[in-house]
Write the structure tokens for this entry.
Amino acid sequence: THSIKTNLAFAAQDSISYWDNRIIATVGARHDKGDTETQNFLAAGAPVVTADYGDWSTKYGLVVKPLPSKNLALFYNRSSTFIPVSTLDSNVNSPSYGQIFPNQIGEGDEIGLKVDMFDSRVVGSAVYFDSSLTNQLITVTTPEGFDIRQPLGKVTTRGVELDVSAKLSSRLTLLMSFSKLRALTLTGIPLRGNPQRTFAFFGKYSFQGHKLKGLSIAAGYRYAGERAGDANGTFYTPNLNLVNLNFIYTHKKWRAQINIDNLLDSTEVTGSINVARLDLYNKRNVTFQLGRTF
């Protein structure tokens, strides 16, 4: 399949603030217009299929800082968008054979808070989100027994995200994030490849003693819970656990860094199409970088 796509877009956004910038409102809009020419070279004599698309994307939000110190912010955002699709239905058994699938339409809401304490040495946020995306391609069976893809799916995603960064001292910095979400298709099947829980941690320690000045050690850990392995949820990939380690040394204009990716040399599944097609993370990998600023 060969596609040529052209797109023209324009956007505008405006913000207004009150009460010494403790209330901030934002509104914006974008319009996209374009066309797609698609041809299936696998089908002899297949015509060029042209589809025009155009639609508006909008967003608006509100931020309120109730305390005079402005170190606490409450916010709400609402957005809508659409995703142009150029995929051609190449299944001869489909009623939409030779046509381009319709664009995907999305809507989302999020509400949360952000705190900034101790001169920004501790910053954190908590967000609840609820979004949907329509016209997802799902596999259905025709009365004749053929499996075809049709834009009948709708994915609804709800969840929470937590983020915290802390500079505990001039030597030690910690970053942590956690998310819990539920992404379901219209039929109630979990969306392929989406973990219900994720957790990440990063820490960096910088030595300041005379002999080790300029040396830093950083470590990161990433966890992702089990994920639906295919579009029908017939199997789940195992939890993902990755550990990385970095050594950084800087001296004047020079910087040297050793990166150890997948420190534990574990076998991790990062994605899948079906039970026969799994994507695996690289085995342990060590790289060295040397740079100089001018």
Q: What stands out?
A: The two ends are 47 Å apart (CA to CA).
